[in-house]
Amino acid sequence: MNVPWRTYQFPDFLWPEELRPLSEYPTGQQVQQYIRAYAEHFGLLRHIRLNSKVLRLRWHPGSCKWEAVYCDSAREKFYKGAENFAGLQLHAKNFTETSAVSGRRVLIVGAGKTALDCVCSLVASRTASSVTMLYRQAHWPMPRSILGFSIRNLLFNRAIPAMLPPYYTASPGARAVHAAARPLKRLFWKSMEAVISRKFHIRNATRPHVPLPADLFYGGQILDDRSLGGGHLGEGDGFTTLRGEINSFVRHGVILQDGNFLPVDAVLYCTGYEKTYEYFDGDIRSRLGLQKDGLYLYRNCIPPGVPHLAFVGSEVSTYSNILTYGLQALWLSQVLSGGVKLPARRVMEEDIRAQQHWRRQVMPAQRGRGAVLMLYGMQYHDQLLRDMGAQPRRKGLNLLAECFGAYTPEDYSELMAGCGPAAERNPVTAAADPAAKTESSALTSLGGSCEAAGGAYLGGVYLGLPDAGSSPSASLSLWHIVPIALSLGQRAAKEQRGTGGDRSSSSSRDVSVRLAPVGAASGPGMSPSLVDGA
């Protein structure tokens, strides 16, 4: 795992004592056990559908029902002559054991988080005879500690985001301060680059062309330098890096774009996952307003042009995704219950246009830029909390801790204190102080919307959202499917109906979801053990 466990927790289900890792960084198996414990805690296992292929997402206006399925697919590159290659070809999602490439000369295609995870595993296990990482663009590695400070304390506080250009909602005063402090901020980032270059022995040939603050929007790569030959990224332990691209395959290797031949016995594609919206019909895709750089939404959840639809987890990326998804789910539950009233469509569209302009000014071009927040995650969380009438400053009166203390899901767990089974059975959350429970009860004063959100926000699509300004439905039936195939299904429907009967109004409509039966997808599908979603 490339983030500390304290930053990778569900805010309504903190790591149970018996599963809590002994070291700061959990193993993949420990994370899998934790996610399973979460699913069991909320009774989600009976709703799991594995190896199910996405077919469609279609709205039936006459019956007010969705026919829905959702998923991502692996992005597998196809090169000329690949069928003639005598060696092994694997996408990272299918790479679960280093023994699969034992004794082979391995070529890893890509340089993202998954690629570096695979490099660390192979170098540490000494399973492969050699490992070469082929990349088009180098990225800045982030050590687990800098100058003795844990990366958790550096990336997850309010001070570091202050070194970036202002958030799109920043006041004129904040923008003026930023302009005045720009030279100081530039010096800070140059110093960080120098420290990282020295720690990982980065030389001109492997030095990223993109400045560190811009590169962090690609996701950031926290490395255990002990797994890479003492931190040497360029050589050692049979590991080398090579900038370039594959042009074609031959029987015992690959031909690169520059014409050079590279002998390899196994190719591991760490090329991520292709996000697709083809499960929507053409009319809905048009109304979503898809851009070349991604899908832009109000609060990264709501498409103003498509009523009855919201996204949770699938259209946002921060350095604490698991926390962000939880806050999104809580925010959406308040929208569904009437606790948060959406502004007029015109206002939401103006906000989206402001986001687009800001992102295109401060973030490097990439396919999913509409969902990227990364170090701006703190400001985004503050937005959601203000919408809900909650206090965004979670450190109390301690100004030093507020500015420089690490923010983790634990700081937000009190908001979830009234959210269903988590409040009753999770000993950490149940111990929240009375003041926090008062805040939580204020958030859920309209009934069981929070309960419907609990245990359901690993990422995906919510169906059944009321029109902006209309009354919430008394009998909402939500279907929520997640990248590891966890769906909320009937549980949320039951709880929402059971708690919302006296909140209906004459203008609300019965919104329900029909699940289309799906056959098993070809191939092994998405593995639950792939937790980084590269």
Automatic annotation (TrEMBL):
SUPFAM superfamilies named among the record's database cross-references: FAD/NAD(P)-binding domain
Keyword flag Oxidoreductase: yes
EC numbers, comma separated: 1.-.-.-
GO molecular function: flavin adenine dinucleotide binding; N,N-dimethylaniline monooxygenase activity; NADP binding
Keywords annotated in UniProt: FAD, Flavoprotein, Monooxygenase, Oxidoreductase
InterPro entries the UniProt entry points to: FAD/NAD-bd_sf, Flavin_mOase-like, FMO-like
Region (Disordered), start-end ranges: 493-534
Cofactor(s), by name: FAD
Chain ranges passing through the membrane: none
Sequence similarity: Belongs to the FMO family.
Protein name per Swiss-Prot or TrEMBL: Flavin-containing monooxygenase
Native organism taxonomy: Eukaryota, Viridiplantae, Chlorophyta, core chlorophytes, Chlorophyceae
